[in-house]
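User: What would this chain look like folded?
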Amino acid sequence: MKKSLFLLTLVAAVIATSCVSTFSVSADYDRQTDFSKYKTFSMLPWQTDVSTPVAGAIRTKLLNAAKNEMLERGYTFVEKGGDLTVGLSLLIEEKVEYRSDGTVSYGVGYGGYGYYGAYGMGYTTPTTIREYYFNEGTLIVDIFDEKAKNLVWQGYGFDRLEDNPHKNEDKIDTYMRYIFHKYPGKVKQTK
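Assistant: Here's the prediction, encoded as structure tokens.
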């Protein structure tokens, strides 16, 4: 029983990590910032001038995912005038990948007679190089100190997007969690 429970846990862990195995995350922040002084946050409206146009449902899901991550860290949401302001950008770029494929053929032969006979060996590698086009999405989260009007934290992640947009939408919460995993500030909980 313990062995089957262990295997089930292992399979679940592999499936969970394979969902975003290519998602790369990075973050940077102002090391002078005391994140414990912030208690509230507000959300900036979607910035269409710095983002790739996406459907309204996707924008809403991204904003809600960021909002939920801030709430999980103990911050209180206010419509306007929070200690922190959270803004999102999404950039989608078409990329190209080159792949080569081919087979290797070997041949051995003997030529000539007598003393001057010789063995020979050769090979060929016919290779085909193909172009594969895909979209890569970069999700950027900016957090500003509202009073000082300066950027105190930025996290971003990028991944190759699926051809099926619903699969990309299903990953939004996981992507946002991975980005916020690098967030240094956590509000101290009062008892």
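The chain is about 25% helix and 40% strand. If you want, I can go into more detail on any region.
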